[in-house]
Known about the structure:
16% strand; 6-stranded antiparallel β-sheet; alpha/beta
Amino acid sequence: xxxxxxxxxxxxxxxxxxxxxxxxxxxxxxxxxxxxxxxxxxxxxxxxxxxxxxxxxxxxxxxxxxxxxxxxxxxxxxxxxxxxxxxxxxxxxxxxxxxxxxxxxxxxxxxxxxxxxxxxxxxxxxxxxxxxxxxxxxxxxxxxxxxxxxxxxxxxxxxxxxxxxxxxxxxxxxxxxxxxxxxxxxxxxxxxxxxxxxxxxxxxxxxxxxxxxxxxxxxxxxxxxxxxxxxxxxxxxxxxxxxxxxxxxxxxxxxxxxxxxxxxxxxxxxxxxxxxxxxxxxxxxxxxxxxxxxxxxxxxxxxxxxxxxxxxxxxxxxxxxxxxxxxxxxxxxxxxxxxxxxxxxxxxxxxxxxxxxxxxxxxxxxxxxxxxxxxxxxxxxxxxxxxxxxxxxxxxxxxxxxxxxxxxxxxxxxxxxxxxxxxxxxxxxxxxxxxxxxxxxxxxxxxxxxxxxxxxxxxxxxxxxxxxxxxxxxxxxxxxxxxxxxxxxxxxxxxxxxxxxx
Length: 502
């Protein structure tokens, strides 16, 4: 049994050390492009004061275009070049001029071809983090703040082609996804009992499996049980087994969960639902691996690691002593904290469904940009699971070759109050800052291409209520208030709101 890291009465939880902080930079992420699904997830970084042109690649022209490219740890990003550009035939060769400012991206549309910002017509204005640009109904770009330097992958981590789930089933190329891989490797190496937390549909099962496969126990068994399936009258036998010759056991012994997983890992799903009597039954075994089979004369000892998964806050459901013994935490980030991975998830789920739902070859499939933009701008309560279900519903509801947004999906998504961004309006030409001075404030009455110059008034009580409702999850609180994450952070700083204990 892996040894606990901390004991009662003072419970402290072990987590992976923070990666060295990398400054955030504005980036545009290609969420979908009709010309090439393979380029989903590529991005271009734009540093403050820089100006780039976004448009269609045309080998006959020498214009320097923003070069969308894969972004991975240790991978340099290419500078603007004639070879850059989007693989979209209807996008103009010069569609957007983009200048990075301290507040966001000042974007001017250079073409008469339609451009939308957060689903509304757009010509010029400020684009902030979490805003979505749709180009000519062919490409969707997401504006985000993200580090240019990603944490290096753990030593020996199996790398797959860009955008593909790795061999452990961990999906994503966002900073959050690479931080998660690093945390998994750390937890595997430490060999302590672990609680994997996260909302429904975030991929906790894959994380539990990855921790086992990365650890020294990888050649041992991994046995999964739901904490809900144990009954109080039979739990002792279910966990520790029954000795041969015991009444009701017959001549042969009945191996329980712990003997079955000897030398390996037990995954207790929904451990947050474990009743207190079950937690108490496990306490001594979590300490030293000692247990006694039902009907046995002497105790036995087993070397087993426990990985529990839950979408509940452990402190609210665990006994104090039980919480102390499961002291290591691995938190799986929700999709709202890694929106730049939504396009990759859609592409993967589409490929999975290809053989069973559509007869069209991949080259003829078209994912509606409206579908992608809608998902990126809405809360997704069940995360990747909800994206998968929506993709299946969209495939089933539409004609071959088209993956559009059916009305049934629109009705299921959260209301507009829970959207990431609000509908934009276009600014007057006089409100645009000179390209040489991107920091210059705009004229009174101008729009940000998504919000007016004055941010929505949010009182301390409103902000505090949203933070407390979401367990101080900044992204979730921002969704409740109808503002972006970056605005929420600004509001918290302005009001002096800090997470308790920090």
